[in-house]
Amino acid sequence: MSAAVSFCAVLEAGGPSFMPTQIVVVPEAVRAALGPGTKRVVCTIGGHAERLGLLPQEGGGRYLLLRKELCARLGLKIGQEVALTLAPDPAPDHINLPDELAEALGAWPEAEAAFHAHSGSHKRAMARHVATAKAAETRARRAVQLAERLAAGAHPFRAGG
Questions:
Q1: pLDDT value for 121
Q2: What is the CATH number of the domain that holds 55?
Q3: Measured at the alpha carbon of residue 131, what is the angle toward residues 100 and 89, in degrees to the nearest 5?
Q4: Pairwise CA distance, residues 5 & 76, whole Å
Q5: Are 47 and 84 found together in one domain?
Q6: Confidence (pLDDT) at 70
Q7: pLDDT averaged over consecutive 10-residue blocks of the chain (161 residues)?
Q8: DSSP 111-144
Q9: What is the dihedral of CA 59, 51, 117, 126, to 10 degrees?
Q10: Which of 1, 45, 92, 102 has the most C-beta neighbours closer than 10 Å?
Q11: In which domain, by residue range, is 13 found?
């Protein structure tokens, strides 16, 4: 496995147009040092480690998408230079399933099979959707809704399909 690589970059506004957020462009030299084929990294910012994907930029290059919640928690602002350390994720397919979602999927085999048929990024989005709810009741409701939609063969985030 490649060694960790540290660098500084400016936190920029960016990301997909439907989801304005904060990004950090990863220099080509850093990408090369991470090793060929590295798509997921463990990124350490301000002493906090976060698993992230190296997302493709239009025209080439890669960037890290930093959620607003993470930036707020770390006190990061657009235009600020940030120090980062990246290392290839030793378990790039790992997904932290919240207990509520794990329980719902375990109780519903059709939903669990459908969940595992999705891409890693989609599974992470489903897990994050449940995990980010503050109240236990909301997490449970979101988990059940996702399981119902998955078992029915529907899109996990769209009520009608």
A1: 81
A2: 2.40.30.100
A3: 110
A4: 20
A5: yes
A6: 86
A7: 86 74 92 90 93 88 88 92 95 87 92 90 88 91 93 83 54
A8: HHHHHHHS-HHHHHHHHHHHHT-SSHHHHHHHHH
A9: -100
A10: 45
A11: 5-88
Q: Are residues 82 and 21 in the same domain?
A: yes
Whether 65 is covered by a domain: the verdict is: yes
Report the pLDDT value the prediction gives residue 7, as an integer from 0 to 100.
97
Neighbours of 104 (CB within 10 A): 25
- Tell whether 79 and 117 lie within a shared domain: no
> For the chain, what is the domain count?
2
Residues 20 and 53 in one domain: yes
Q: What is the pTM of this model?
A: 0.71
In a domain, 159, yes or no: no
Report the pLDDT value the prediction gives residue 14, as an integer from 0 to 100: 80
* Residue 36: per-residue pLDDT: 84
Residue 109 and residue 45 in one domain: no
Rounded CA Rg of the chain: 17
- Residue 104 is predicted with a pLDDT of 92
The predicted structure's pLDDT at residue 93: 83
The CA distance from 113 to 94, in Å, is 17
